[in-house]
Amino acid sequence: MNRRRFLSSTMLGGAALVGFAGTARAFNMQTCNTAAQGDTACGELQDHYRLHKQMLADLKRKLDAQGLTPEQEQVILAKAVCPICGMPLIG
């Protein structure tokens, strides 16, 4: 097989995939309905926000027990990130 034949067959295969694929569902934006029971993604998002709040409350409680100044606590809280998603705990 020569290069020209390989490239033309690859291009035709890619064009066929684009023609049959339709819309990419991964890029569709949908709003979460918090009342929806069967919406797994929205439920997981709400659970994750709840987990962030719980981690932040636990961290504040631990920092209060150490007797740090309010400025020191704020520096630590500002640097705190979620170990699961890597997002800051303070939004």
Features:
91 residues
Describe the structure.
The chain is mainly alpha-helical. It has one domain (3-79). Helix content is 62%, strand content 0%. The longest helix is centred in the middle third of the chain and has 27 residues, at 40-66. 0% of the residues are buried. The model has no long low-confidence stretch (mean pLDDT 75).
Q: What would you say about this model in short?
A:
The chain has 91 residues and is mostly helical. The chain has helices spanning 3-21, 40-66, 70-79.
Give the secondary structure arrangement, pairings included.
Elements: H1 3-21, H2 40-66, H3 70-79
Integer average pLDDT: 75
Multimeric status of the protein: single chain
- Tell me the count of domains: 1
H and E order: HHH
**First-residue to last-residue Cα separation:** 57 Å
